[in-house]
Amino acid sequence: MAMQRPTAAIVVIGDEILKGHTQDSNSSFAAKILYRLGVRVCRITAVSDTKEDIVEELRLLSARYTFVLTSGGVGPTHDDITFEAVAATFDLPLVLDEQLVQIVQSFYGVRDLRNNPALKMARVPQEHELFYADPSAATKKAAWATTFPLVKVRNVYVLPGLPECFEACLQGLQHCFPSSLGSRFMEYLFLRSEESLVAHVLEDTLKSCADVVIGCYPVLKNPEYETKLTVEAGSRSALNRALDLLTSTLPAESIVQVDAVKLALDKLLHLNSHEKASAAFEVFAECHQRFPDAEIAISFNGGKDCTLLLHLYHLFLRSKGKADQKTKVLYIRNQEPFREVEQFLQAAVERYNLHLIEYNEQIKPGVDRLLRDHPKVEAVLMGNRSTDPYSSTLSTFKMTDEGWPQVMRVFPLLEWSYAEVWQAILLLSVEYCSLYDQGYSSLGNPRNTAPNPALRYEDEHGVVRYRPAHALVNGAEERAGRNIKATP
What is the pLDDT of residues 268-280, one digit of tens each? Predict the structure, then answer.
């Protein structure tokens, strides 16, 4: 079942913004977070600390968009009137929430709030929900963000205005927004031509291709190209049609092939995964510097994390002129695998020009055989993330434990989140195992792995189906389908 892409509006509240005394950064931060969740931000607006203005804006936006986020006006002072305005928007009374009363008492260290202005922070619209942020999202300076919950009233999400608190709060509350990740597909084209010379081609393409958006941006002082095109569509087929039309219509000599790593980082530029992808490429470079005369292998089992790792490493090798170099991948088949995993593995061997090393062993003897059969291997790239079992204490470069065959383990994706892995996979058009489109979010073997219950839904005919893995909202539920009896 196709998921309709949700929309959002962001309302920045405060006279200080409109007077130019304070620069708004919250709307930009929220737009980035929502974009990477697949939510289309349609409007950003700023209003004064006037109840009537806020109500007018919220009534208009809440009726038009899936989500409305507000920033500011939730403190204890006279001009903090956001809760009052939200209540008036939906014709609701303000009520004291006991949870919030206790939080305010604890936060400000007061027992009697009857004459304390802080009580205002516990008086919220009647039809409200409270959502608590992930504590790991907050810094010491932004402890407010995980002490006070986000207040949601229907489709309006009320957030603080202080940027540190706003960012930590929203960062830790992404699970509140149903993800539409994977609902948009994007590619870049780089041209030697000025944008005015290709405008007619872009207009003709848009007339011929539905559900396609083309952005055209001049690039100054770049010796390689003068114009950058972003081509975005609601399906891979629609994107490919638009790209085919553009590349067949534009002069062939005007299209520039850019460095593979640079192109990948450009695609990820507006996402958190941009910095982490950049760091991963730096890890690859450091690995080659540490082991200049050795062979580097990749541990690969067909899972999403090692698939992304393999793709990024392949881009790195391309950027270094080593695209034809066969990469050794270690596949330890210690239990009966999924048939789909085996099929995907063979396809990956062809796609990435791999030297596949397979052992039907447990992991420890499998590593021992690798080092005996391939003595030049001194480092193994691995796709572990810190949230994986037994991975919380790993570091980027770490030798195998005492009692194991000694080899350097390298973990370029250690600090990536579940959502960031899928952001990169989808945006970089990485081919992945088909099980991830069948509701599996973490792969073990057929006996201990089933589709993730968090992705389960019933279609319009009452038939149970599963959304794809990238639609999982809460990354903490990634392994919810593991270690349960799978249905034959």
Answer: 775 656 788 899 9
Q: Of residues 177 and 65, which shows the higher confidence score? A: 65
304-342: string of b/e by CB count within 10 Å (b at 16+)? bbbbbbbbbbbbbbbbeeeeeeebbbbbbbeeebbebbe
Number of neighbours of residue 189 by Cβ within 10 angstroms: 21
151 touches 96 (CB < 8 A): no
**Contacting residues for 174 by C-beta, under 8 A, at least 6 apart:** 33, 37, 419, 473
**pLDDT of residue 142 exceeding 80:** no
For 49, 166, 211, 439, 474, the CA distances from 477, given in Å and listed in that order, are 40, 25, 33, 12, 6
For the segment 17-27, the average pLDDT, to the nearest whole number, is: 95
Domains and CATH numbers, the chain: 7-176 (3.40.980.10), 185-258 (3.30.70.2860), 265-410 (3.40.50.620)
- 71-94, pLDDT tens digit by residue? 999 999 999 999 999 999 999 999
Question: What is the reported pTM?
Answer: 0.71
Return the pLDDT at 487: 47
Task: Write out the DSSP string of 136-167.
Answer: GG--STTTHHHHSPEEEETTEEEE-SSHHHHH
CA-based angle 262:172:149, to the nearest 5?
Answer: 155
DSSP label of 331: E
Three-state secondary structure call for residue 4: coil
Span of 113-117, 198-202, 294-298, 397-401 with lowest mean pLDDT: 113-117
Residues 36 and 270: their CA atoms lie apart, in Å, by: 8
Residues pairing with 94 in the sheet? 125
Taking the C-alpha atoms of residue 466 and residue 385, their distance in angstroms, rounded to an integer, is 25
Q: For position 235, what pLDDT does the model report?
A: 81
